[in-house]
Design a protein that fits this description.
The chain is built from 10 helices and 17 strands. The protein has helices spanning 15-26, 41-51, 60-65, 81-90, 105-116, 135-143, 175-178, 185-196, 300-308, 319-338; strands at 6-11, 31-37, 55-57, 71-74, 94-97, 123-125, 150-158, 199-207, 212-214, 220-222, 228-235, 240-246, 256-261, 264-268, 275-279, 286-287, 342-343. Strand 1 (6-11), helix 1 (15-26) and strand 2 form a beta-alpha-beta unit.
């Protein structure tokens, strides 16, 4: 499809699809929006009208049967990702699937197997976006030995708010929709994998602040997705880490990540854009000036389109890395449930 128009269909056109993916595709030459299937046909019609999408389907399966759809952008909740992704690949459609990959690693492995059965099709996950502008610089500093041997990582990712006991159950708190995914743990671990590689072993403790919540209809549900998780991690390269993800640390320290080595230290601040560094003998940290041309940032839709046209390979994020972060997520859940350290499964 090097010079042909790429015709895209959208399954699940929620906030991220409308604010990121559709505008991202609009910037790519030779991309046409041909169809959308949302949770309801009415909401799909609103999206179609807003963005000039040709057709609206009441069922996503109808969209996959359309012969003029070349690629599918999946923006549903994680519980639907495996079924839709696997059906899309089976129907001969390229797939861009929203993160998190799935509800658990088993479902993620099913998606990976389906992608391997269709090697001519592109299968991409939406990457963790928050560190994209600094990832190449961090990786370069580590590869060049700036910090020496990496000894430890300290990561705190706080959402900085007080508990709202009467707030309705959010879909991210509903294990039937989100699975083992917890807060922003998945996107941070995906970023850390870019720097240090996959984890080998975890030990986790969690806290659910409000054990039961009502959904929008008023029905009461037991909450099984934690509001807070502390994790001790051992990486394959020998480094250790303490990671904390929380929505209940109001007025506490801002999110940040520290990498400590035998000869240097890196610090990534709350907005994941400001990077500081210091080496043995320095009096403190100094900001690492990253030129604008090195701050590549978000180019998800461009990468997807280029991969379909054979111009590049998917790096952010392929299904293999998606399974890796789902294996980590599963290990954290198992450790928290058993009170034992758990090995992270490897591909």
């Amino acid at each position: 499809m090097a010079n042909q128009t790429i015709r895209v269909g959208f399954i699940g056109a929620g906030k991220n699809t409308r604010e990121r993916h559709i505008p991202g595709f609009q910037k790519c030459e030779g991309v046409e929006f041909v169809a959308v299937a949302n949770r309801s046909k009415e909401s799909g019609e609103r999206v179609a009208k807003e963005f000039g999408i040709a057709r609206v389907y009441g069922d996503w399966r109808e969209l996959l049967r359309a012969p003029d759809v070349d690629a599918v952008c999946i923006g549903t909740w994680p519980n639907m990702h495996p079924e839709i992704s696997e059906a899309s690949l089976a129907a001969g459609k390229h797939v861009l699937c929203e993160a998190r990959m799935a509800m658990n690693a088993a479902a993620g492995r099913g998606m990976l197997a389906a992608s391997r059965k269709a090697p001519s099709l592109v299968a991409q996950l939406v990457p963790a976006p928050h560190t994209l502008e600094v990832d190449p610089t961090i990786k370069k500093l580590l590869a060049e030995g700036y910090v020496g041997d990496v000894l430890s990582l300290e990561l705190q990712a706080a959402q900085g708010r007080f508990v709202e006991p009467d707030a309705p159950l959010h879909w991210r708190q509903n294990i039937a929709l989100s699975g083992h995914n917890v807060l922003n743990m998945g996107i941070w671990y995906e970023a850390v994998m870019r720097w240090l590689g996959p984890a080998r072993r975890v030990m986790a403790m969690t806290k659910i602040a409000v054990p039961r919540r009502r959904d929008e209809s008023g029905a009461m549900h037991e909450v099984k997705v934690p509001d807070h998780v502390d994790i001790l991690v051992t990486f394959g390269g020998g480094a250790v880490a303490h990671m904390r993800f929380s929505s209940i640390t109001a007025l506490g320290p801002a999110s940040e990540a520290w990498i400590f080595g035998t000869n240097g230290t890196l610090r990534l601040e709350a907005d994941a854009r400001r990077l500081s560094a210091g080496k043995r003998g320095d009096k403190g940290l100094s900001e690492v000036v990253i030129p604008a041309e090195k701050r590549i940032g978000w180019r998800v839709e461009e990468e997807f389109v280029n991969a379909i046209r054979g111009h590049e390979k998917i790096t952010h994020t392929n299904f293999e890395d998606g399974v890796r972060y789902m294996e980590f997520t599963d290990a954290v859940a198992k450790s928290a449930a058993t009170g034992q350290a758990v090995d992270v499964a490897a591909l």
